[in-house]
Amino acid sequence: MKMLINVPETVVSDALRGLAAAHPELTVDVQNRLVVRRDAPVADKVGVVSGGGSGHEPLHGGYVGMGMLDAACPGEVFTSPVPDQMARATAAVHSGAGVLHIVKNYTGDVLNFKLAAELAEDEGIDVRQVLVDDDVAVTDSTHTAGRRGTGATLFVEKVAGALAEAGAPLDRVAATARKVNECSRSFGVALSACTTPAKGSPTFDLPPGELELGVGIHGEPGRERRGMMTAQEIADVALDAILEDLPPGGPVLLLVNGMGGTPLLELYGFSSHVQRILGQRHVGVARTLVGNYVTSLDMAGASVTLCRADEELLRLWDAPVRTPGLRWGC
Amino acid sequence: MKMLINVPETVVSDALRGLAAAHPELTVDVQNRLVVRRDAPVADKVGVVSGGGSGHEPLHGGYVGMGMLDAACPGEVFTSPVPDQMARATAAVHSGAGVLHIVKNYTGDVLNFKLAAELAEDEGIDVRQVLVDDDVAVTDSTHTAGRRGTGATLFVEKVAGALAEAGAPLDRVAATARKVNECSRSFGVALSACTTPAKGSPTFDLPPGELELGVGIHGEPGRERRGMMTAQEIADVALDAILEDLPPGGPVLLLVNGMGGTPLLELYGFSSHVQRILGQRHVGVARTLVGNYVTSLDMAGASVTLCRADEELLRLWDAPVRTPGLRWGC
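ok -> structure tokens follow
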């Protein structure tokens, strides 16, 4: 498998150097693997920190900036960052108002963020945690006890970031972040496996003519292998799985997310089927985002995430955000 | 080759329906294949129109909106739109101040835009054309007499759009667009071929362990096939080719563009090598954009575009833009 890299060992460091050079509004510590808002810590503001394995870009480093994350700590590809990294990130954004950790539900991340929170609490920093576990495909998986955290991470980071930016206190930012997660559900599908730089070959075997329904963002097995389906059939299966489990309520935020290797032309086409089916099922779509936001390296495929959104969530979603991966209103 | 589509015949229409549903600020005519700003024609403003084959998303439909294009006309995948489409787009954005056509240098596009301009002139619409031909890799190619138009299209569309938005007259918008093209150079590399929906298999044959230096955005042959190289070596070759030909001058706008199938993690790493080499060669980088902006479906690979930018160009680059694919300042 050909890659646009020097050697596998420096992939994450090289990417961080590239991020630093392209985005002078961020402070990137390549040595310690931290991406921090240049103006951090922002006085009297709750700090919002996330992190996880690399390979899901723009998640998380690409979502650092005004109105979203204050800091991100990227691990090696598909590998949790270490507690020290997370504790450094926490200290870097701590202004006295406390810090929220946004943690995707993978065993390594959960364990390490727990240790990081203890380290931070030892330093007198008040920490709350929100666990993202929106993937309805499977309960328990290769890297997870319970549901996996996937596309809803974007919603949680955006909404929590907006509320923190507006000056809300730690407990309210944490409660709202939890509400976003509770109101969100995702389902993903893989048309191809992905290839990590270290392995250099596909991480799992997906025969020609088959797809993986309910795949995880590291290529973890989903619900079922099937013969190839049309975009419309895939949208039907994804929305069946999501809507069966989604709390009833108002309109939704819709994320039609590419896994990294699927062209935008296909994603927009897939999105048209998702929107049509939602219309038939009388689910109102308040906002739509189509693109590669929570990726799995070069995996072909897509995921759908819905989040039931009340007026407050929509207002926070629409609030200005300025990050490399998501920007509007400023 | 598995794709997230229904049938090849409806790929472009389905994508346009998805674009319409996701972006209520655009008017999408699926039947006639037009993407137009909802507030077009904007009184007293020069209209800015582009178009070309589909498969390069977000180019061009994703660049319609305030501060960039007024309309785009997408053709079938890798196929020029027809003169009627272009003439309709021109009429839809014509407010009396004239219309600029931004045309990538491919024989079909050039011919059809010429006919469209004649149709529009017959209706009393003043039309100017700027031809984009920034690709230094080859002169004359599969679909082109002269150099191909690639990454600089983004720069031309952004800068011309900003100047038109500021109320400049047609001749000035056209002259500035031409200046941006003259000050821009690109070089692309493919690590894999791309697959069109109609063909369903790779459009060219690139053996494992080889890459194509100087590839075009439809997979047209470049300068040379070579054994696989590191990201750093590729950056060296690309910048050698570009800098040899770039007019001397001030700092540059830098676009490190993904062809569609290369993960953002790799693109940022590649960009770090590009920036380091530019530093060694004393080329100042004023602004950097890293991502999938001018793509070739699922092709793995990247291109580099530099544009020498004076104060005016930088001001126009920084001006607010609100499109699905590029947004800042609003």
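The two ends of chain A are 40 Å apart (CA to CA).
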